[in-house]
Amino acid sequence: GGLGWYRKHITTTAAMLHGTVYLLFDGVYNNASYYVNGHFAAFHPYGYSPFALNLTGLLHPIGKDNVIAVQVDRTRYADSRWYTGSGIYRNVTLCVCPLVHIEPYGLHIQSQLMDANNIARVTLRVLLHSSCAALESVQCSASVKARDGHMVAKDVKEIRVSPGTQTEAAFTLTIQQPLLWDIETPNLYVADVALSQGGRVIQRQETRFGVRDIHFDADKGFFLNGRHTLIQGVCLHHEAGSVGAAVPDAVWIRRLRALKACGCNAIRTAHNPSSSRFLDLCDQMGFMVLEEFFDEWHYPKDKFLNNTEQSTQYITQGYGRYFHQWAKRDLQSTVRRDRNHPSIILWSIGNEIEWTYPKFNNANGYFENYANGSYFWTLPPFSRQKIRKQIAMIPIEENDIADVASGLVNDVRELDQSRPVTANMILPSISYETGFADVLDIAGYSYRRVIYDYGHAHHPHQPIVGTE
């Protein structure tokens, strides 16, 4: 932990001065303050979500030196329940774009299998932004290339973009006899989107994606490309042991190969978004991914001596301090960055959040009846009726967990409706009675295998996934 400063010198080019310039930070842990040429530019507290810093209008004239400074405040060194690392531990990318350009993470690719899987319909939505002073017209082309480089589909449109606005260009392309992305054959295509003016390409962006179909059934389980598939997964934090949090590709590749050899085919990013590079490797190596957003919502978790009173100490203060203000932005920036990855099959809005809500702990009966921890292996000590009665006797917290969960689920669905949303619930028998589980597409169970049948009997239409 501690307080760290980073400084980077860049020289202004003509393209920078007459265009739009972004610095894309894939992950900075944490509480980062950004300065451009001595002036405060932005603050971003979360250590795991991507962040785009717009440098446009902040740079010196052509040929002059600029100083980009980042202060990282990790003085709250006990703010997490696992090893986080500190500082700029993921990639940083400088993007110099024309005035009319594709927004960072502004390409959304969705595929749908048609006609007994012999045809794939690919929808590309390109979010364009204009910093011009007047109405501009650009030619936007979208093509799909197979892994050997040959083009399998293409379309071109003329798009008019108003100054200071965002405009979406939408394409629907067809792939005949698509090669599907699967855990054994992780086939990938490349979407190539180009903007042109006056016959000259002014911006090009290539993004890999896969064509695959996923389906969860409450009675029959999970299906990948129509084939019943067991999700045989592990939970991985973002670090690699003694290597730390800035993990070289070779380390991830070695670990993923070893997991594949063990029979693993899925990974949950416990308990936060992973790096974009890690997801690239999962795409390439055939791992399904459950990507999780948060370990804390409004209320903190114990991080020091496992004592609730200690959670108010300065050194233990975590993301809960910023959740209300930042959660939607951090969640949605992650979804925008990651929704084109075929490896991702589930989004998770939180990990074991119920612990932090007193209403749950006081209504479940586990802790007063099974203080030794055997609640993991026993059926609920209270009936559903008694649980409801206990809940009704306790005042609702200021931030009701079901309402917060509903908001987060809606935040995901605003940007991606192609994947179900879950949460890793440590007290599902309580979550079923408070409305928390009701807003989820799939009930995620943290351990608690003993109540799989209980959950399915009382909520037969909601699939269950053992998320931990």
Summarize this structure as a short list of keywords or feature phrases.
468 residues; alpha+beta; 4-stranded antiparallel β-sheet; 19% helix; globular
Shape: globular
Radius of gyration: 24 Å
Uncertain regions spanning at least 5 consecutive residues? none
Beta-strand proportion:
35-45%
Compute the number of strand runs.
Answer: 26
User: What's the end-to-end separation, in Å?
Assistant: 29 Å
Helix content: 10-25%
As an assembly, this protein is single chain
Main beta sheet strand tally, sense and closure = 7 strands, parallel
- Name the structural class: alpha+beta
* Mean pLDDT reading: 93
Q: Order of strands across the biggest sheet?
A: 20-21-22-23-24-25-26
Total DSSP helices: 10
Could you please describe the fold and organization of this structure?
The structure is a single chain. The protein has ten helices and 26 strands. The mean pLDDT is 93. Helices cover 19% and strands 37% of the residues. It has helices at residues 14-17, 249-261, 276-285, 323-338, 358-361, 366-369, 384-393, 401-415, 428-434, 452-458; strands at 2-11, 20-25, 28-29, 32-36, 39-44, 51-54, 65-74, 87-88, 92-97, 100-114, 119-130, 136-145, 151-161, 166-176, 189-197, 200-209, 214-217, 221-224, 227-228, 233-236, 266-269, 288-292, 344-351, 421-425, 443-445, 464-466. The strands form seven sheets. A seven-stranded parallel sheet has the order 20-21-22-23-24-25-26. Strands 1-7-4-5 form a four-stranded antiparallel sheet, with no helix packed on it. A four-stranded antiparallel sheet has the order 13-12-15-16, with no helix packed on it. With 468 residues, the protein is of the alpha+beta class. The longest helix is centred in the C-terminal third of the chain and has 16 residues, at 323-338. Helix 2 packs parallel to helix 3 (276-285), helix 4 runs parallel beside helix 8 (401-415) and helix 7 (384-393) packs across helix 9. Strand 22 (288-292), helix 4 and strand 23 form a beta-alpha-beta unit.
